[in-house]
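hi!! sorry for the late reply, been swamped w classes. u asked for the two structures so here they r. pasted raw, havent cleaned anything up. first the sequence of the first protein and right below it the tokens
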Amino acid sequence: MSRIKIFRTNSNPIPQYDFGDIEISEAENSGLNSWENFREKVVGYLDTIPNHIRIKLDTRFFEGDAPETEEIFRNEMAEFGNNLHVLAADESKVVSEWEKIDGDPSTNFQSLLVGTTERIALENFIEINLHPRFVYFSDYKKIIGNINLNEYIRDRDSPSIEYTEDEFDKAETVDNLFYLAELNVDELEECKNSPSQLIKLLNTCSKRLTEKLNPAWKGDPIHVELRLNPNNVMSVVISDVHRDGTVTNTGLLNRRAEGFKWTFSFIVNFAAETQKAELKEAILLLDEPARNLHPTQQRGISDLLKNLAGLNQVLYATHSPYMIFDYAPGNLLVVELEKKKHLSRIFYDYWNADDTTLTPILYGLSRGLVESIVDREIGYNSRPVIIVETMSDTLYLNAFDKFLEDPNISMNPLNIIAAYNKNSVLPLAIFYRNHGYNTFVLLDNTDESKDISAKLIANEFSKVQTIFFEQAGKALQSIEDYVLPEDYLHALNQTYGIKLRKEGYVNLTAEDIESRKKNGIIESVQSIWEEHKEDGWDEFDSEEVCRYICEKIAINEADFLSDKTKDRFRSLYRLIAERIRQQQNLISNQNIDKQKKMRV
């Protein structure tokens, strides 16, 4: 048997099994190791022993249904065997016959399946030995800080065991806290009359709790202290422990932020419940763990789940890119709404899901870009970085580098990084520069770009590190202005001639662009689109045209690009190369000056 289908239906919630084409007998079979057959064997044995012994034995265990657990089975069998040995001490034959039954390898809980048909026996074997076991963590209860031990001891099911304003916790959360601390409430009661014993007990429990929580805690470690206050109130006090050994911010847990309390409570509840339960090889199900947490703490929860995945299969739902640690196909599934049938649809090949659904995954997949910024070792040993404003700038620079095939001005030694938008250029450039990258910024000639350049200089960038688009000493508004207007319009007409055919689109000419008297071709085209907004032209998307040009370059079908356009891009690459040389010379001279000062 290589495949088993397990399913349930609305009419029958009990798990059912489909074994495919394999035929399994449903006829009664007395030779099977079932509870019924084992019970018949015991009843037959009892009929053979002397009556004065039989009437003193408690045989109710063998007259009822199968035991629910293996522990119950072992205890009942042991008790029956002990009684038999006492009552039949003088009847060696009676004892030896029972020992044959009890010592038979088939007489074990795993073998005594309920039912006397092959199919029922097989289904029960699968249920006991192979059926997936699910443990669902549906509720992440918060620990607030002050625990009323009188109420906790009196009624552990009471929801109001903590001093809170509008929120109450459940007793099992406190159970979990005490379980991790290995704190026995009865032992605590006994120590109340001895202050030294009480202090020792609470210090020991606090130390255990701290040691068990810190491995899953990101950032500075914390210290957890349990304090017993008047009126039998237990307080949970948290302190921050810094790398230099100092301890600060000591206070009740309920003084902390909601995210902190949630993280603390989640780790307590989850760690305790996974340690208390028989969770080996169980499938753990969690709904939105680490919600409302800082990304750093989310990654801490992610690490905790990753460690559990060594012994368990862990399934959890999340919308956060920081909670994804495995992008292997089959390990990361995407669930989205199927709009026609209004049912959930699961993608095993998650890249085929809707783009909006994939947003958290794409952020997570790009995590390496973030780590490359903050890793200083990468920065100091890397090629120069050019920060550009848009993805179009990146596409044009890479595409024309291949198109020109000029080794003297090739962009291959450079890393081109596209900012999210113009406002992102300044901080992104500073981040890269501060982490050891030789960083340059490529900007259009707008007032906003000039303001960015001024702020870069104020942040200790040299003037040569900011490169503005220009041609023959003339400022250009965008990278598209390096493309000859006739060449650009060919690509534009090919892109939108089909797209806007029903909206009355007519091919644009160079005269149409010149008549607008705008700064650059993009502003001119946008003004034309604005006039046709009511005709259904929507907004002009320059990236559409960029994709067309770059695609034609990639497949060697860019004959529409003239030599003049190529020369313009060559001038841009020469400008970038010249600025890099100037910056290298500037850094070299600064290092020489530093060495001279050091000698002095």
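now the second protein. again sequence first, tokens right under
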Amino acid sequence: MKNALSNVQSEKEIKMPLTKEQIAQRIAKELQDGYYINLGIGIPTLVANYIPEGVEVMLQSENGLLGIGPFPYEGEEDADLINAGKQTITTIPGSAFFDSAMSFGMIRAGRIDLTVLGAMEVSDTGDIANWKIPGKMVKGMGGAMDLVAAAKNIIIAMQHTNPKGESKLLPKCTLPITGVKCVKKVVSDLGVFDITPEGFRCLEYAPGVTIDEIKAKTAGRLTIANDVREMTF
């Protein structure tokens, strides 16, 4: 099932930095058949629109749904079907509804193979800050604390810099920590990075982005993979 968000741009149409949809499209390539996946609020929710053909996954939402489909077309929304970010969604054949207690039971029992989360900051040791900015109102931390503690794999979808142009990939997080040494991979609008003992390792760069630009905009420790390559979609 596809919608207007799922139109895939050809590589020659892609301009840097990547859009939120393109970040989600790249992350979708990390999905493996049979995975149970939780998608966080923001960019991660868009991943549902780019699940590769032939790959069957089950998307879980902590508000009590297993089996999320793509976002609905405009005019076809059902206000009773929402994800944890209060966005209207669709279901797939075999979807199941349950209470939050059972949903968090799944998460805490380690049943989630992969969670994709947004982040305000990520450190070069894999710490993540994504739930609160001091002095700003926050409605709650949601399921992030449980997800970073219990998910088998954590991928971060984020912008590489903040609105001031300052790096969000840091030696140490400055905002309240959500989880310590838990992030495995970061996909930003500039590239794809593994978290290693040596810090961020750049595996791929976005079309039109140079390695020098990535170095200039990454405050944390950074190494470049010997086989670094341009990102494909």
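hope this helps!! also noticed smth abt the second:
The longest strand covers residues 222-230.
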